Structures are given as C-alpha cells and as structure tokens.
C-alpha cells in the first residue's frame, strides 16, 4: 500500500515538474501573475495596483492577482518581492516611501539594487496647502507672515518620516522660517486639524483640493501642472538669487511597477510593453482621475533613472534633516 | 431635498443594490460570527468586488457588510465566548454568562434587538443632522478632547475588573506597554523592536484580538478537556427575541448607549472600542440592574450592543460630510466611494445629495437586515456548537489563523497571535482579566499620539490655562479621575458608614 502510494506520488511529481515553465519562458505569461502591494486593501496604492492589474489582465489574457502583504511600514511586502523567484510571476506596485526614502532613514533588508524597474505608473507633485479661509493669498504672503511671526503657526505632517513631512520640513528650512510641527497619523487626521484651524499648513497631492476646504499656494515641482494652471510652481516662488536650491524642493508622490532583480530580458520586455499599453488605456486614465491622480507613465529605462535621481536627492535631504535634529 | 431623497430611494431599491445589500448582510453576519474573523476580513474580501459594481450597489454591499459584521462578532461572543472584535468583548461578559445559564437564545435576542435599535438611532441622527454633527466633529476633535476621551476609556478598566482592581490595572498597563512597540508617533524613533523589521510598525490589532479571545479560549478549552472540571455544554436551537414588555427598564440604557455610540463615532480616533467600553461601564454604574452585571444581565448586553452599532452611523457622519474617516473601516468606505467618482467631503452634500441619502438609506436597511440574517446564522451556529469538542476547536483554530492572515498576508502576525494567545491563556489561569489588556492596547497608540500633540499645542502656556481652553476635556478628565478613584474611595466610605452606625 505504502509503496503504491509512493509510486503514485513519484508519478504525480514528475507530471507536476514537466508542467513547470521553462526558465526563459517563451509563452510568458502561462499562469496567473501576482502583484504584491506592501500596504492594506482599499488604500491608494492598492486601488491603483488593482486597476493596473485589471488592464494587464485584459492585455495578457491571464489572471493578474493583487496580494496585500502588509507590515513593518512596507518592509514585509518589499521583502516578499525581493525574495520571489525572478520569473515575472511575482511583481510589485510600490509608492515612493519604501523604495526611495526608507532605505535612507533606517536599516532595511533591500536597496534599489534588489529590484528590476518595469515602469512608473503615475507621478503627483505635492502641493503646499492652507485653509481656504486663510489670509495668505500667495506663497510669498505666507513666508513673509511666518518671518514676521516666528513660531506662531503650526504645520501638519502625516507622521515623522512621511513624504509630506520631508517636503515641508525641507521647505521651511530652506526658506529659513520658524513654524511649529505637529505630527498626525495620516492624511485624514491632518486635514481634520486643518479644518479646525489647529494646523495652518499641510502638503498633499492634487486629489485633496476638491475634497476639502483647502487651497494650494505652490506646487512642489519645476513646472506648473496643466490641470492646475493657476497654481505657481515652487521654482517661480524661489528668489532669483537662490535658484540653485530650488530643485531640492521638488517632492512628488509616485508609484512604480517593479519586480525582483534578475528578470529575464524577454519577460521584462513583454511586461514593459504590456504596462505601457495598460497605462495608456482610456479606462485606466479615467479611473486614476477619479482618485484625483494623473498618469505619469515612464518605461523601464526612464523609470529607473527617475527613481535613482529621486533616491539620491532624498538621501541628501534626509541626511541634512537628521543632522539638524541631533 | 425631497427630490434627492426620492432619487436616493430609487437608487437603492434597484434589484442589483438590494441583492448586494442582502448578500452583504448575510456574508457580514456569518464572517463576523466565525471566531477570529471580523469586520477587517469581511471588508477586505469585498473590496475587489466593489470595484466592478455600480455606485449604489457598491455602497450597499459595503454598508451591509460593515453594519452586520460588527453585530456578527457578538454571536460568537455569546455562544463560544470568542469575540471577533474588541467591541464585542463586553457582550461576551454578559452573553456567555447567560448562555452558560441556558439562556443563549434570549441573550442573542437581546443582542440582536439592541444592535438593530442602536444602528437605527444612529441612522436617524445621520439623516437629521449630518452637517451640524460634522461641524461638532471638527470643533471638538482637538487633541486635548480626544486625549481626555481616551483617558475616560482607559479609566473604564476599573469598572471591568471589579473584585480584582490590581490585576485589572496591571493588565491594562501591560496593554499600554504592548502598544509602545514600534515607531514613536511623534519622533519616528523605533522602540522595542529588538532589531527585527517585523516590529517596526508595532503589533497589528488582529493578532492581539485573536490571541486574547479565540486562541486563549481555545487553549482554555483544551486545558478543560485534560483537567477534571466538566465544561458547561451550551445549547442554542433558535433565537428568542425579547417581548415588548421585557423592554421596561432597558429603554434608558438603550438611548444613553446609542447616544454614546453616535457621539464617539463622530469624533475621530476613538471608534467603537472606546464607545462600547464607556457605555458598558456607565451602565454598570447607573443601571437599575447593576448588581447583576457580569452574571448575565440583559441590560449589559443592551448597553454594549446598542452603542457599538450606533458607532457605524456616527462614524459615517464625518466620513461623508468632511471626507475624514471616523474609523479605520470608514477609510476603506471612503476609498471605494472615491473610486466610483464620488468624492466624500465638503462638496458631497451639495453636489451629490442623492448619494449621501442613498448611503443613509442602505445603512438603515442593512441594520434591519440584521434580524433575518441573525435568525439564519444562529440556526446554523446552533449546529456548529453541538459538534464534538475536537471539531469545534479545529474550526476555531482554522478561522483564527485565517482571520489573522487574510487582511495582511503576513506570517509574522500568526506567530504573534499564537504567542499572545499563550500569554492570555496564562492570564486566565492566573485570574487576570484580559479585556483591560485589550483596552490598553487599542487605546494606547492614540493616547500617546494625542497627548504628544497636546503637549505641542500647550507650548509655553501653563497647564491650568491650557486645560481651561477646553471645558469639554475638563469634564472628561474629571469623570476619568472619578472612575479611577472610586474603587479606592468606596471601601473607605463603606467603612466610615459602618462606623457611624
């Protein structure tokens, strides 16, 4: 009996092995692809990943499944991507913080070298926000008032080490103004405090403009956003003699599709093509718009260059801020 | 406005929405009732489906799942003593005691009716005064008020650990310490992580809840099997609803608890857990039947259940009117609405009033659907609890592990839940109450973060001057002090009185 079972098992395993895809998959994808999201279901990253997965499913004709692996501020999910077999069946959709910021702040078990970059999905520059009823009409008004009244105003962040935190902290430092920081746990809490005038300044992306009673004073990017033509870019707000540090103030929220290091070249090429097609699909663009996000597709090469540049700039900024705190 | 309401009713009463609502309500009740699975799992499972649905159906599905999964947790609390959510803990105290006394059907009847009424009252508040209540949420949602409110929640530990205040306090402090693991909410500094990545963001809520309730209960039952004590068999063939005449004496508790639930639901950051514990403790102090609390008193069930279901409507007020979720689950609701092109927030009531009313309407229907869903689920559960112990325990293990793993897909959470389960089992053997541990753990992070903010706002002001800026917070602090000191004062008073005689 035992022997019979053993033979059966052996036969089954041979069958199972023969069914496995060859290393350089000709007909990629032959089975469902998993996209790991290092944050919880229903969050912004998760929703974008699901929308992308949906469109890639249409293109590939294979199921593309989103799996949320949450924990340790994104590290658990990132590790799940790096430790996966680089065969193109495990990918990840990740935002900027765990990829280009956390490695500069604390020890994490991965670096940019652990990943293959398939493409950037979107990019949304941060906006300096104040209450709609605020007396400040321009960015300049705000800075002047802050210089005249040091430590009078409060700025909100969605937690120490978050992207808005780094953005505003750096901004106030460069302009040499004194504003008190109040950390909140997430966007919602910070915006609630803005509504109650318990905080006067916050930074977030364009999605919040229509949702809350806030107005933007400056876009933290080099150019104006075509969808928000009246919002000056920070480059315009920086005095002419200090233009050299303007580029240090650009901060944006972005998301990228990545995979573990060592994806076969043909798989990467196929993914690159499929992703470009998915990101250009009108439904995808429309869905992003509903979330208040603008597509910012970049292909594999451009995306890698962009992320490296972001990471290098974050490294400088974070190092400087950390030194100040000590 | 009338137009908008009619449009909302039309939106909600389509076959698709109603189907989604009924499926959501049944699914929510069953998932909530399974030991270890709760609202988080139910919503996580539903999110992918909502992406493919129309507006009204998606809202209906989420509302159905949300309102009923909170309720479902109480079925498990009564029948198996395994609350699936922290807010069902109080239900467990009274409900399981009633079940052991052979009154499981009655206990579930009270739980169901109290949940429905609490939920409906909160829907009424939502419909009548959402904008006004939302502005209250902004005005009174400052760090000092929230801090004071959390203090009140923490002080409730004293009334939950009567008979052994010291052990209750120790458990509560243990919970607070457990909550300090991870990054400091103000400085971002990492604490007590022992160098592992897994603890960087602290211990998630689910492993703690599942460890403290279902797993500890499981270990305890295994222990019972191997010890001489005979376990009490629990039987429940059907749910027995309280008759109208039985409500006499419970109406006041019902209204008070619902109001507490609505009020705390509106304020950000405290949620259903604080609301339930505060309303249960209040009832324990002022109820006509207070001497029976802890031994299976329906009034306790009414207090706990009406408030935790009232939180649903309360929490929806700031979510819809301001775009600020009053509860973590509401954040998911918010995301779903946004994805359907509906932007919750200040413009919603003006731009899409029909969506707001459709939300209210489907939440109301969801609350009413609790009754049939309860009858069906309890019928099924009646069979499950009669299974041989080994099978029942197997089901509990399976569901608990799933409940921990599903929302986050993180293996570490499972090990954590098992470890906490062993600790909680040890606590039960040593006669330590576990609910205070959970209260401390749930409220700890919010408390730390809010008190830190309060310190920033206080700045150079003197403490009395800062406290004077918020009379509401002063009242909450005063109540907390009273709650904390009363176990010390009461014996002294009693002693003095006996000397006088």
Instruction: Report the sheet with the most strands of chain B, covering strand number, pairing sense and barrel closure.
Output: 2 strands, antiparallel
* Class from helix and strand fractions of chain A: alpha/beta
CATH superfamily of the largest domain in chain A: Bordetella uptake gene, domain 1
Strand residues, percent of chain B:
under 5%
- Which segments of chain A are poorly predicted (pLDDT under 50) over 5 or more consecutive residues? 11-24
Mean pLDDT, all residues of chain B: 84
Query: N- to C-terminal separation of chain A?
Result: 71 Å
Q: Which two chains form the greatest contact, residue counts included?
A: A-B, 50 and 56 residues
Report the strand count of chain A: 11
- Rg from alpha-carbon coordinates of chain A: 23 Å
Give Rg of chain B in angstroms: 22 Å
Query: Which bin fits the share of residues in helices of chain B?
Result: over 70%
Structural write-up:
The complex is a heterodimer of chains A (326) and B (501). Chain A is an alpha/beta fold and 326 residues long. Chain A has helices at residues 2-18, 44-60, 75-82, 96-105, 139-148, 163-175, 187-195, 234-237, 265-280, 282-290, 300-325; strands at residues 33-37, 64-68, 90-95, 115-125, 127-131, 154-157, 180-183, 201-204, 214-219, 252-260, 295-299. Chain A folds into two domains: 30-123 and 253-320, Bordetella uptake gene, domain 1 (D-Maltodextrin-Binding Protein, domain 2), CATH 3.40.190; 127-250, Periplasmic binding protein-like II (D-Maltodextrin-Binding Protein, domain 2). Chain A contains eleven helices and eleven strands. A six-stranded mixed β-sheet of chain A has the order 2-1-3-10-4-11, with helices on both faces. A three-stranded antiparallel β-sheet of chain A has the order 8-5-9. Helix content of chain A is 43%, strand content 20%. Chain A is elongated. Chain B is mainly α and 501 residues long. Chain B is built from 21 helices and two strands. In chain B, strands 1-2 form a two-stranded antiparallel ribbon. The longest helix of chain B has 36 residues, at 104-139. Chain B starts with a helix and ends with a helix.
């Amino acid at each position: 009996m035992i022997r019979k079972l053993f033979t059966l098992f052996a036969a089954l395993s041979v069958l199972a092995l023969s069914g496995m895809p060859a290393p350089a998959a000709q007909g990629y994808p032959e089975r469902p692809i998993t996209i790991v999201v290092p944050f919880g279901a229903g969050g912004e990253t998760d929703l974008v990943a699901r929308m992308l997965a949906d469109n890639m499913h249409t293109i590939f004709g294979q199921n593309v499944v989103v799996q949320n692996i949450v924990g340790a501020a994104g590290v658990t999910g990132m590790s799940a991507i790096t430790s996966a077999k680089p065969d193109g069946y495990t990918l990840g959709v990740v935002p900027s913080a765990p990829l280009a910021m956390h490695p500069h702040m604390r020890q994490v078990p991965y670096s940019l070298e652990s990943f293959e970059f398939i493409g950037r999905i979107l990019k949304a520059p941060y906006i300096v926000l104040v209450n709609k009823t605020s007396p400040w009409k321009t960015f300049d008004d705000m800075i002047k008032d802050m210089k005249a009244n040091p430590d009078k105003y409060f700025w909100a962040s969605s937690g120490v080490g978050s992207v808005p935190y780094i953005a505003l902290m750096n901004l106030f430092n460069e302009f040499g103004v004194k504003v008190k920081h109040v950390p909140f746990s997430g966007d919602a809490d910070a915006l609630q405090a803005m509504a109650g005038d318990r905080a006067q300044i916050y930074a977030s992306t364009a999605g919040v403009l229509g949702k809350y009673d806030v107005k933007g004073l400056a876009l933290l990017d080099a150019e104006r956003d075509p969808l928000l033509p009246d919002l000056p870019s920070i480059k315009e707000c920086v005095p002419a003699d200090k233009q050299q540090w303007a580029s240090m103030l650009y901060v944006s929220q972005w998301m990228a599709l990545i995979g573990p290091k060592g994806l076969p070249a043909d798989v990467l090429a196929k993914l690159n093509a499929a992703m470009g097609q998915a990101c250009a699909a009108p439904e995808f663009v429309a869905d992003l718009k509903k979330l208040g996000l603008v597509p910012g597709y970049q292909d594999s090469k451009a995306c890698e260059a962009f992320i490296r540049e972001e990471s290098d700039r974050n490294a400088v900024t974070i190092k400087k801020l950390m030194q100040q705190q000590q | 406005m009338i137009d908008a309401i009619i449009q909302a009713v039309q939106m909600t009463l389509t076959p698709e929405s109603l189907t989604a609502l009924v499926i959501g309500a049944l699914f929510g009740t069953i998932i909530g009732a399974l030991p270890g699975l709760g609202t988080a799992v139910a919503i996580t499972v539903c999110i992918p489906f909502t992406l493919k649905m129309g507006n009204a159906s998606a809202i209906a599905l989420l509302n159905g799942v949300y309102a009923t999964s909170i309720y479902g947790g109480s079925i498990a609390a009564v029948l198996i003593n395994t609350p699936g959510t922290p807010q069902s803990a109080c239900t467990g105290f009274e409900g399981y005691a009633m079940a052991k006394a052979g009154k499981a059907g009655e206990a579930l009847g009270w739980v169901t009716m109290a949940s429905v009424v609490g939920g409906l009252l909160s829907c009424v508040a939502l419909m009548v005064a959402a904008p006004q209540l939302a502005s209250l949420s902004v005005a009174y949602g400052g760090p000092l008020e929230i801090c004071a409110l959390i203090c009140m929640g923490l002080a409730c530990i004293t009334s939950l650990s009567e008979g052994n205040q010291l052990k209750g306090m120790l458990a509560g402090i243990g919970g607070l310490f457990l909550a300090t693991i991870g990054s400091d909410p103000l400085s971002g500094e990492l604490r007590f992580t022992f160098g592992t990545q897994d603890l960087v963001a602290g211990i998630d809520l689910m492993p703690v809840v599942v460890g403290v309730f279902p797993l500890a209960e499981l270990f305890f039952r295994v222990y019972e099997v191997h010890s001489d004590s005979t376990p009490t068999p629990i039987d429940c063939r059907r749910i027995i609803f309280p008759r109208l005449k039985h409500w006499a004496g419970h109406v006041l508790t019902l209204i008070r608890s619902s109001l507490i639930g609505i009020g705390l639901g509106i304020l950000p950051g405290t949620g259903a857990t604080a609301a339930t514990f505060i309303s249960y403790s209040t009832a324990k102090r002022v109820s006509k039947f207070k001497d029976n609390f802890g031994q299976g008193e329906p009034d306790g069930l009414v207090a706990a259940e009406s408030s935790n279901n009232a939180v649903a409507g309360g929490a929806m007020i700031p979510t819809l009117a301001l775009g600020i979720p009053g509860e973590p689950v509401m954040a998911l609701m918010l995301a779903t609405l946004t994805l359907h092109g509906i932007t919750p927030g200040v413009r919603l009531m003006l731009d899409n009033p029909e969506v707001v009313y459709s939300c209210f309407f489907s939440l109301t229907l969801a609350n009413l659907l609790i009754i049939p869903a309860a009858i069906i689920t309890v019928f099924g559960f009646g069979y499950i609890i009669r299974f041989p112990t080994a099978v029942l325990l197997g089901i509990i293990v399976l569901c608990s592990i799933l409940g921990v793993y599903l929302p986050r897909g993180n293996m570490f959470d499972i090990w954590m839940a098992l470890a906490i389960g062993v600790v909680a089992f040890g606590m039960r053997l040593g006669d330590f109450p576990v609910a205070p541990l959970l209260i401390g753990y749930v409220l700890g992070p919010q408390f730390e973060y809010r008190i830190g903010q309060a310190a920033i706002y206080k700045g150079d002001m003197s403490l009395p001057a800062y406290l004077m800026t918020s009379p509401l917070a002063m009242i909450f602090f005063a109540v907390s002090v009273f709650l904390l000191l009363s176990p010390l004062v009461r014996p002294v008073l009693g002693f003095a009185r006996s000397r006088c005689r």
